[in-house]
């Protein structure tokens, strides 16, 4: 769908996947005025194809748009664009349990010109779809994480809460450092003190203290994950206390040493729920619990996937039927 200032959204169309032709001076190439979303369509046991909380993605898309000085897209239009694509590509929704059709709505600034003193007056919103298997090849094998001391993902007042490509471009160097140090993923700390845990590469984090859960609060420097939000609700359903707050790396290490901090897991659309097994990057690192997937981690994973794949009741109306 195209957008032109003064005219609004126009020319919605469905077209075969293929290259785009853009002027080399298109502003997105130079000034990164871009944002995206990620969600999945699941084939449920009943045969229906559903999306998980697409209106939550639509709302986040528009919050990102506001931060990036880009036009908002009506939530209905956002959801209809997904419905139309999934209905057309329904045969691409995998039948294998645990697989899904990943949907990538995104928006780019399309005005040409090398001047930097404007937000673009034209934009293009697109959605692409791709069948997806498990995100980590190890399935629910715990991941090892690297606490980044050299880089920061987001500073107060920056774009950390927006899902814009620039955040990811700036993160690659830290992710590469994590891999070079034998870890699977980078974990970001706060910009001011490099002490408080924010989030993992493409996932939010939860810390389990027995029957109490703690997740870093939404301070404006981390992405408000839809999986994170869903788990805060599911935790209450399971009779657990879930808090949003602050956790320093010292508290993380001390909790593991004393045995009070029993599990740590990461959550997001792509990776669902993934246990964190070990930490590196400060003072030699440490292991979480016995390094294996924790009981509550696996319980949350089952509950969430149960709702997504239709084997558990959808008590919060999270599942949106497409066809
Ligand atoms: N943080 C970052 C940086 C991410 O890219 C993602 C994936 N969108 C998440 C957290 C998790 O968000 P969600 O649960 O909405 O997928």
TrEMBL record:
<dbReference type="InterPro" id="IPR018300">
    <property type="entry name" value="Aminotrans_IV_CS"/>
</dbReference>
<dbReference type="InterPro" id="IPR043131">
    <property type="entry name" value="BCAT-like_N"/>
</dbReference>
<dbReference type="GO" id="GO:0009082">
    <property type="term" value="P:branched-chain amino acid biosynthetic process"/>
</dbReference>
<keyword id="KW-0028">Amino-acid biosynthesis</keyword>
<protein>
    <recommendedName>
        <fullName>Branched-chain-amino-acid aminotransferase</fullName>
        <ecNumber>2.6.1.42</ecNumber>
    </recommendedName>
</protein>
<dbReference type="InterPro" id="IPR001544">
    <property type="entry name" value="Aminotrans_IV"/>
</dbReference>
<keyword id="KW-0100">Branched-chain amino acid biosynthesis</keyword>
<comment type="pathway">
    <text>Amino-acid biosynthesis; L-valine biosynthesis; L-valine from pyruvate: step 4/4.</text>
</comment>
<feature type="modified residue" description="N6-(pyridoxal phosphate)lysine">
    <location>
        <position position="163"/>
    </location>
</feature>
<comment type="similarity">
    <text>Belongs to the class-IV pyridoxal-phosphate-dependent aminotransferase family.</text>
</comment>
<keyword id="KW-0663">Pyridoxal phosphate</keyword>
<dbReference type="InterPro" id="IPR036038">
    <property type="entry name" value="Aminotransferase-like"/>
</dbReference>
<dbReference type="InterPro" id="IPR005786">
    <property type="entry name" value="B_amino_transII"/>
</dbReference>
<comment type="pathway">
    <text>Amino-acid biosynthesis; L-leucine biosynthesis; L-leucine from 3-methyl-2-oxobutanoate: step 4/4.</text>
</comment>
<keyword id="KW-0808">Transferase</keyword>
<dbReference type="InterPro" id="IPR043132">
    <property type="entry name" value="BCAT-like_C"/>
</dbReference>
<dbReference type="Pfam" id="PF01063">
    <property type="entry name" value="Aminotran_4"/>
</dbReference>
<dbReference type="InterPro" id="IPR033939">
    <property type="entry name" value="BCAT_family"/>
</dbReference>
<keyword id="KW-0032">Aminotransferase</keyword>
<dbReference type="GO" id="GO:0004084">
    <property type="term" value="F:branched-chain-amino-acid transaminase activity"/>
</dbReference>
<dbReference type="GO" id="GO:0008652">
    <property type="term" value="P:amino acid biosynthetic process"/>
</dbReference>
């Amino acid at each position: 769908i195209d957008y032109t200032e003064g005219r609004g959204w126009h020319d919605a169309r469905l077209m075969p996947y293929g290259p785009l032709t853009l002027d080399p001076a298109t502003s997105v190439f130079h000034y990164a005025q871009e944002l995206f979303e990620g969600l999945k369509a699941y084939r449920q046991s009943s045969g229906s194809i559903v999306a998980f909380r697409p209106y939550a993605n639509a709302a986040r898309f528009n919050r990102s748009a506001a931060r990036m000085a880009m036009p908002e897209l009506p939530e209905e239009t956002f959801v209809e664009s997904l419905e139309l694509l999934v209905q057309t590509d329904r045969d691409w929704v995998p039948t294998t349990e645990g697989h899904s059709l990943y949907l990538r709505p995104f928006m780019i600034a399309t005005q040409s010109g090398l001047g930097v003193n404007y937000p673009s007056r034209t934009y293009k919103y697109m959605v692409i779809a791709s069948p997806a298997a498990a995100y980590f090849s190890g399935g629910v094998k715990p991941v090892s994480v690297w606490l980044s001391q050299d880089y920061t993902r987001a500073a107060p007042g920056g774009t950390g809460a927006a899902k814009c490509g620039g955040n990811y471009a700036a993160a690659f160097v830290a992710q590469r450092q994590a891999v070079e140090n034998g870890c699977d993923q980078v974990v970001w700390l706060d910009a001011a003190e490099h002490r408080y845990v924010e989030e993992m590469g493409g996932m939010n984090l939860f810390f389990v203290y027995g029957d109490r859960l703690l997740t870093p609060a939404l301070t404006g420097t981390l992405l408000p994950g839809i999986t994170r939000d869903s788990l805060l609700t599911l935790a209450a359903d399971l009779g657990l206390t879930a808090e949003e707050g602050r956790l320093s790396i010292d508290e993380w290490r001390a909790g593991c040493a004393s045995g009070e901090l029993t599990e740590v897991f990461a959550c997001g659309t792509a990776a669902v729920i993934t246990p964190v097994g070990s930490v590196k990057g400060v003072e030699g690192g440490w292991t979480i619990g016995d390094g294996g997937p924790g009981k509550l981690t696996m319980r949350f994973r089952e509950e969430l996937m149960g709702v997504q794949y239709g084997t558990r009741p959808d008590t919060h109306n999270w599942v949106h039927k497409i066809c």
